[in-house]
Amino acid sequence: MEQELLNGVSSAEAGQVLELGTRMVVPAGTSLFRLGDPADRLFLVERGRIKLTLPMSVRGREEDVFVEERAPGQAVGWSALIPPYRFTLTATAALYDAQVIALPREALLKYFVANPAAGYKIALNLAVVVGHRLQLFQTMWLREMQRTVETHSA
Question: Which homologous superfamily is 4-153 in?
Answer without folding.
Answer: Jelly Rolls (2.60.120.10)
